[in-house]
Amino acid sequence: MVITRVGYAGGTTQAPTYKQMGDHTETLQIEFNPKVISFRNLLKVFWENHNPNRALYKERQYISIILYQNEEQRVLIEKMKSELEYELKEEIQTEVSPCKHFTLAEDYHQKYYLKKYPDAVEKMRTIYPTDDEYFSSTLVARLNGFVKGYGTLTNIKEEIRSWNTSQVNQTKLIDLINSIKW
After folding, report:
1. CA-based nearest residue to 53, from 1, 88, 3
2. Contact assessment for residue 153 and residue 146, using Cβ atoms and an 8 Å cutoff
3. Per-residue pLDDT, 50
4. Assuming Cys at both sites, which of 90, 101, 105, 165 could form a disulfide with 109, CB separation 3.0 to 4.6 Å?
């Protein structure tokens, strides 16, 4: 994944918020590099890591939903959903809909796990000072995943060395990570 952001989508209500979500669902927006991970593999992770039975969810706010960007994605989602239904011998109740609009959730919903490490947040804010820069940062997404138990700092540093930025900037980012008090 390149960027992950929390927000509201799947509905028609104008300007949803956490307290007035209307007919939207809390969602995770993922931007990914298809040269690194395929959409099929992302779907595999999606189907394997949640219960696709809508009956378990009390309100639309928390339903199982997957939103697609184009027809190719829709076809693949429906194909994998059918395969899973055949395998489980039950109907998958995950809603499949086009992503017509995504509203970014309030800042207190963003990078939730990283917030438990104030020194990391403070240091990341020195290089990503605006909310948009911070919430859209690949590095911040990686560190948020790291503190949740996904990946290692070593892997993040190795990945930084492959980014399309100067060696000087790569070194600055790695030095900044090394300076964080975890």
Report:
1. 88
2. yes
3. 82
4. 105
> For 108-136, what is each residue's pLDDT tens digit?
899 999 999 999 999 999 999 999 999 99
pLDDT reading at 54 higher than 70: no
Place of tokens 């378990």: 56
Question: Across the chain, how many H-helices and E-strands are there?
Answer: 7, 5
Domain boundary among 104, 129, 164: 104
Q: Which residue has the tokens 């998958």?
A: 92
Q: What are phi and psi of 27, to 5 degrees?
A: -135, 165
Residues 125 and 99 in one domain: no
Domains of the chain: total: 2
SS (H, E, C) 82-139: HHHHHHHCCCCCCEEEECCCEEECCHHHCCCCHHHCHHHHHHHHHHCCCHHHHHCCHH
Q: Does one domain contain both 86 and 121? A: no
For position 87, which CATH number holds?
3.30.1060.10
**pLDDT averaged over the chain?**
93
Is 100 within 8 Å of 16 (Cβ atoms)?
A: no
